[in-house]
């Protein structure tokens, strides 16, 4: 892994007797690039020599990190034991999920969310693995991922696995270590072995517009750096810093916290360097069109999708050494960028990225520029950090919140600069714009530096309450569905359910497990109240009939006067899904025929419901749009904040016009008469802007989901919905996020189907499964038959799209013996099909059906290339 000798943290760990005691759990704390990963791997190899059946589960938070860790670990282990197999499992890699569930691998690298689902949904899953490694455990403090970290920690404790937690010293972990009986191995000072020069630059703006700034240090003195001008815009400063280090042969990462800004800044810098400093870029002897075609050939991405993600000018920039990386890029393009920047052989020199490349990624870059020290969040997603002055962190209008980076986030950013054994020195720049008559930026920076000496105490995200989130504050826009308000209302029923088994647990056992998590200072009555509320909801909510239990049943032992809680059949199906009771109730109501969208709340038989889903899928999507996570995604596509002003009123009129047009086109094809009458001829106000998500925006989002389900093409979505008006902001990345969330809710609905006793619901579950695959893999509704043909869950979405095109072409041209039988256009299409086939062959196993036509494809390829 690039270590010619042990680093201080590694040496301290290998000298500690606790590392060799199988009864001890280890909490390893060290700075970024301090060699934490190697410690549990050496332990694994030592145990593997003693016990050939010894297995390890390696948990990571991000897909990019999972892919890189799997490659590095596989390479390291092959040097010692070539036959060891390291499996990978993320949302996109699914090939070995069955083997990982059954414990038929030596080691598995898996993201936290999937590990939690497997642990809850697969009997004895963790019993197959003797050791669990929690990488980047500092994300237990993250508002969105922290709950999964905490619950997996409790799961590992309960199954008596040996635990290794790897984290940074930017939080005080004493309470976690004490509550969970960890043995701490810590090196708090920088121990990466590579000196790092850290340079904060304050852009003191002459006016509030902030266009022209003087570049100063913390004390207000001008920054003196060779080749860097004294004043200018932030773009000018980034250009000067890049030019300064490119001239020295350095590689650079530029972090920003907005996907759109990352891409825009990448374009700007590429244009500037191409114009002013072409000698610093990679020499390219081809034009934009050829570069674009090369990226098409290498990745097999559809041309219309690549135009949305990397246009010909950006493909030229990629060849010259400049690119961007964020969640918008599909797996294939992300992998290409990661390979070119993270390896020593890569050709990229400058990459603009979001935090997707911050946590745990082993890079070979020399320079990190943090171009924005703020992170934008929607106010209902934001929980202020403990111990910090909230006034110093929140700006915005109640819907958008800009907060200063936490110490852990900042340190992970700059930790990518310099890598032991690869670079001699790292350089980290933090850029901050200081507006006149304000001094808050320097105060925040000073506060961040003080936290290095006195870091915040880490506490469980699961046990946090948000004192700033209530119906009078940031969540007032959607008060009835606010997830944080639900948390205040003791809505952590699903996490509590994950602690219950079919064999049964007592109330005391549930409480003792939760007490292992360090919470804020509260009395025991608070925890009792929350557990009791959660258990009541699990027992009595989401029942198909009033006589049934919900997801948990209880038995009272009269002798010991103790109650035991067991998972019901419904609870077994739902365990592992991190959804709120509100979300589960919305989906259950739909399955029982009582839809939120229908005021009369008619009931449907299972057979009638199946026909309704097949005939009127728009109704299902409209019901799903009552769910909070889809309501958040609506902000990505629509300008919601400006509905109260003149411009907003005009935009609202455009939205309403589009809704009317689309709904009329869906009549008798995709929407029930009841819902059509409600939306076109509402009984109350035309559109409701006060309760929950406005009906207008719920309708718009449903239209977007249905059009994706029907067309599965970003280009067609833009043509169909925008039609020159630009009222939708449609990008492949946003559509991917939307389709994945809808697919998740459809998976939950499938699980709910299996909780119902009527066998007809199994047919509904299969129908929902086909819809989920269509949405996730981007298959057109009319092409759903391909789901039966292809092993889609064993392919990435991009590979499936390529196979889909291949099958389309083969259906129209089942066999031929001479290229002359094809038209000129068909011959061009066929060459593109052959390139895609080659890409699939190299990346994964070809599905069985594709194997049958593979000889025909080989024959055609030979004929075409003979010319």
Label this structure with key terms.
about 850 residues; disordered C terminus; eight-stranded mixed β-sheet; 20 strands; seven-stranded parallel β-sheet; single chain; alpha/beta
Describe the secondary-structure layout.
Blueprint: H1 8-14, E1 25-30, H2 38-50, E2 56-60, H3 63-80, E3 86-89, H4 97-102, E4 107-111, H5 112-121, E5 131-134, H6 146-158, E6 162-167, H7 174-179, E7 182-187, E8 196-205, E9 213-216, E10 231-232, H8 234-246, E11 252-255, H9 259-276, H10 288-299, H11 303-309, H12 312-320, E12 322-325, H13 331-342, E13 350-353, E14 367-370, E15 374-378, E16 400-404, H14 407-414, E17 426-434, H15 440-453, H16 483-488, H17 493-497, E18 505-506, H18 507-515, H19 524-540, E19 552-557, E20 562-567, H20 569-574, H21 581-591, H22 606-615, H23 617-624, H24 628-637, H25 646-666, H26 673-680, H27 695-711, H28 714-722, H29 732-754, H30 760-777, H31 786-789, H32 797-812, H33 824-843, H34 848-866
Parallel strand pairs: 1-6, 1-7, 2-4, 2-5, 3-4, 5-6, 8-17, 11-13, 11-14, 12-13, 14-17
Antiparallel strand pairs: 8-9, 9-10, 15-16, 18-20, 19-20
Helix pairs in contact: 5-6, 8-9, 10-12, 21-29, 22-23, 22-30, 23-27, 24-29, 25-27, 27-28, 29-30, 32-33, 33-34
């Amino acid at each position: 892994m690039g270590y010619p000798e042990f680093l201080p943290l590694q040496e301290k760990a290998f000298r500690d007797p606790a590392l060799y005691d199988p009864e001890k759990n280890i909490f390893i704390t060290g700075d970024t690039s301090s060699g934490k990963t190697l410690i549990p791997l050496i332990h694994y190899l030592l145990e593997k020599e003693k016990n050939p059946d010894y297995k390890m589960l390696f948990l990571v938070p991000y897909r990019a990190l999972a892919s890189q860790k799997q490659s590095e670990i596989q390479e390291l282990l092959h040097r010692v034991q070539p036959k060891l197999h390291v499996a990978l499992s993320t949302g996109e890699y699914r090939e070995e999920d069955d083997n990982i569930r059954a414990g038929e691998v030596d080691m598995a690298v898996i993201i936290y969310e999937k590990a939690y689902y497997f642990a809850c949904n697969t009997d004895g899953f963790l019993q197959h693995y003797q050791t669990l490694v929690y990488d980047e455990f500092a994300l237990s403090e993250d508002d969105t991922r922290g709950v999964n970290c905490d619950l997996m920690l409790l799961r590992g404790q309960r199954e008596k696995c040996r635990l290794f937690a790897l984290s940074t010293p930017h939080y005080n972990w004493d309470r976690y270590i004490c509550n969970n009986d960890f043995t701490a191995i810590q090196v708090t000072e920088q121990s990466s072995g590579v000196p790092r020069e850290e340079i904060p630059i304050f852009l003191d703006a002459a006016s509030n517009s902030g266009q022209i700034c003087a570049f100063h240090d913390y004390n207000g003195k001008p920054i003196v750096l060779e080749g860097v001008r004294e004043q200018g815009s932030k773009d000018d400063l980034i250009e000067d810093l890049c030019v300064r280090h490119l001239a020295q042969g350095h590689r650079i990462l530029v972090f920003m916290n907005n996907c759109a800004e990352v891409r825009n800044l990448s374009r700007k810098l590429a244009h500037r360097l191409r114009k002013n400093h072409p000698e610093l870029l990679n020499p390219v002897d081809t034009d934009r069109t050829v570069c674009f075609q090369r990226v098409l050939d290498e990745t097999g991405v559809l041309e219309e999708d690549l135009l949305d993600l990397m246009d010909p000018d950006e493909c030229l920039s990629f060849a010259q050494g400049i690119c961007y990386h964020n969640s918008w890029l599909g797996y294939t393009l992300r992998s290409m960028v990661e390979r070119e920047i993270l390896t020593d052989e890569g050709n990229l020199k400058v990459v603009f990225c979001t935090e997707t490349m911050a946590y745990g990624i082993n890079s070979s870059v020399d320079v990190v520029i943090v171009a924005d020290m703020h992170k934008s969040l929607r106010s209902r997603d934001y929980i202020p950090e403990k111990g910090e002055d909230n006034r110093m962190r929140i700006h915005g209008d109640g819907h958008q919140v800009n907060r200063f980076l936490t110490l852990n986030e900042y340190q992970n950013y700059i930790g990518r600069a310099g890598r032991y054994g690869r670079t001699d020195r790292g350089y980290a720049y933090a850029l901050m714009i200081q507006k006149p008559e304000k001094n808050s930026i320097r105060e925040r920076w000073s506060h961040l530096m003080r936290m290095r000496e006195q870091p915040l105490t880490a506490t469980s995200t699961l046990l946090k309450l948000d004192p700033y989130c209530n119906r009078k504050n940031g969540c007032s826009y959607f008060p009835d569905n606010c997830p944080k308000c639900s948390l205040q209302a003791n809505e952590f029923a699903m996490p509590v359910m994950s602690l219950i088994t079919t064999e049964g647990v007592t109330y005391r056992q549930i409480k003792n497990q939760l007490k292992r998590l360090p919470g804020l200072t509260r009395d025991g009555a608070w925890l009792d109240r929350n557990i009791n509320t959660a258990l009541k909801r699990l027992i009595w909510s989401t029942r198909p009939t009033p006589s049934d239990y919900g997801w948990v049943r209880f038995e009272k032992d009269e002798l010991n006067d103790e109650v035991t809680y067991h998972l019901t059949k419904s609870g077994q199906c739902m365990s592992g899904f991190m959804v709120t009771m509100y979300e589960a109730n919305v989906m259950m109501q739909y399955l029982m025929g009582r839809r939120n969208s229908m005021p009369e709340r008619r009931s449907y038989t299972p057979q009638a419901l199946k026909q309704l889903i097949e005939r009127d899928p728009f109704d299902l999507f409209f019901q799903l749009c009552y769910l909070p996570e889809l309501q958040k995604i609506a902000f990505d596509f629509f300008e919601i904040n400006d509905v109260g002003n003149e411009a907003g009123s005009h935009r609202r009129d455009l939205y309403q016009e589009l809704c009317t047009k689309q709904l009329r086109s869906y009549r008798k094809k995709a929407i029930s008469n009841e819902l059509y009458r409600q939306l076109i001829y509402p009984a109350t106000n035309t559109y409701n802007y006060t309760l929950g998500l406005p009906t207008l925006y719920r309708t718009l989002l449903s239209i977007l989901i249905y059009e994706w389900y029907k067309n599965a093409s970003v280009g067609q979505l833009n043509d169909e919905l925008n039609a020159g008006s630009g009222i939708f902001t449609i990008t492949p990345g946003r559509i991917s996020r939307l389709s994945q969330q809808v697919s998740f809710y459809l998976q939950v609905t499938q699980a709910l189907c299996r909780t119902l006793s009527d066998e007809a619901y199994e047919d509904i579950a299969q129908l929902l499964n086909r819809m989920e695959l269509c949405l996730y893999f981007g298959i057109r509704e009319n092409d759903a038959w391909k789901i039966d043909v292809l092993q889609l869950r064993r392919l990435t979405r991009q590979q499936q799209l390529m196979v889909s095109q291949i099958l389309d072409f083969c259906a129209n041209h089942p066999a031929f013996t001479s290229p002359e039988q094809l038209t000129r256009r068909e011959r061009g299409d066929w060459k593109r099909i052959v390139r895609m086939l080659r890409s699939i062959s190299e990346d994964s196993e070809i599905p069985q059906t594709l194997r049958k036509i593979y000889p025909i494809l080989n024959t055609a390829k030979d004929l075409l290339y003979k010319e």
